[in-house]
Each structure stands twice: as structure tokens, then as C-alpha cells.
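Good morning,

Attaching, inline, the C-alpha cells for the sequence recovery test we're adding to the shared suite. The designed sequence is right after.
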């Protein structure tokens, strides 16, 4: 089983936020168990492959960091273009599964390290950057820190449910 390697969090509010963020994240990591480079690229009809979920979730977390932490993009523009929105993903070149998991871990740790220092009054803070117009209906959900944190946490859990459905479609145990 893939284990989470996250730093402990000292503050009460930060601990609560980090634990909430970790729920979907840990589930996604658990669901990667048993995949290899070949099966991570497979997707029966009606499914996306595991590597797409990892790339997509890493892009979403990176977008959060760009908007609310003011950090430069951690993923390349090419990576973001390939995985961010789920359309036109080119699977001819995808990093190996271990690298995809590490990109996802790094993006999550970056947010987690940030939230430990937050206070309740920070949640209403608006991003200094305007959310990308490509975000469509979700742009407003990224406008304030609190909404963006909630959406980021839910996003991992939502896609973990899809990965849980992918596993039996590939003949694997569901693990959930």
C-alpha cells in the first residue's frame, strides 16, 4: 500500500484543515496500490486512466497554490495543458506512475504546508489574481481562500470515487 509521507501539523486550526485535506488525498494514494506503469494508462470505456486522475488533481492543487499562495506554477505549462481540464489529453507521453504520484504528493504537500498557518479570518480572503476564465462555473469557487480549500478537498474525494470504480473495471479489487 502506498503510504502518505506528510509532515505533522502543530496548530489546532491548521491540524483540522490538514486532516480534512488529507482525507481524499490519502484515499487517492491508497487506490493507486496495485497499479503499474502499464495498468495506470488503461481505461475501459466510460473511465479515464489512473495517470489522468493524478495529473488532473496535481494541476488543480497547483492552481490553488498559484492563486492563493502566490507561488509560481510547479507543473510545466505542457503538463497543465495535458491534464488540467480532461479534454484532449495526450497519453503518448506520460511520466512513469511513480513520477506522477510524486508530482501529486508534492502539489498536496505544498498546500498542506500553507494551511497549517491559517487562521479562521483568512478564509474570506480573496485571491489577488483573478481565477482563470477557463475555470467556467468553478471560477467563483476559487475566488476566496475558504471556498478554494473546500473545493480542493472535495475534488480529491470526488475523483477517488471514480478511481474506485476504475479498479474493478480493470479486474482489480476495489479496496473500498
Amino acid at each position: 500500500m502506498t503510504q502518505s509521507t506528510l509532515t505533522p501539523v502543530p496548530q489546532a486550526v491548521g491540524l483540522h484543515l490538514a486532516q480534512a485535506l488529507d482525507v481524499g488525498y490519502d484515499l487517492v494514494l491508497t487506490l493507486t496500490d496495485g497499479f503499474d506503469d502499464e495498468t495506470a494508462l488503461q481505461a475501459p470505456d466510460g473511465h479515464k486512466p489512473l495517470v489522468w486522475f493524478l495529473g488532473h488533481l496535481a494541476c488543480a492543487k497547483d492552481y490553488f497554490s498559484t492563486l492563493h499562495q502566490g507561488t509560481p506554477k510547479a507543473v510545466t505549462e505542457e503538463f497543465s495543458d495535458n491534464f488540467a481540464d480532461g479534454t484532449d489529453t495526450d497519453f503518448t507521453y506520460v511520466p512513469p506512475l511513480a513520477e506522477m504520484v510524486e508530482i501529486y504528493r508534492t502539489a498536496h504537500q505544498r498546500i498542506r504546508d500553507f494551511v497549517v498557518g491559517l487562521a479562521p479570518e483568512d478564509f474570506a480572503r480573496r485571491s489577488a489574481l483573478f481565477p482563470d476564465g477557463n475555470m467556467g462555473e468553478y471560477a467563483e469557487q476559487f475566488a476566496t481562500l475558504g471556498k478554494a480549500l473546500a473545493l480542493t478537498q472535495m475534488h480529491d474525494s470526488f475523483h477517488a470515487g471514480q478511481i474506485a470504480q476504475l479498479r474493478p473495471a480493470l479486474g482489480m479489487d476495489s479496496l473500498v
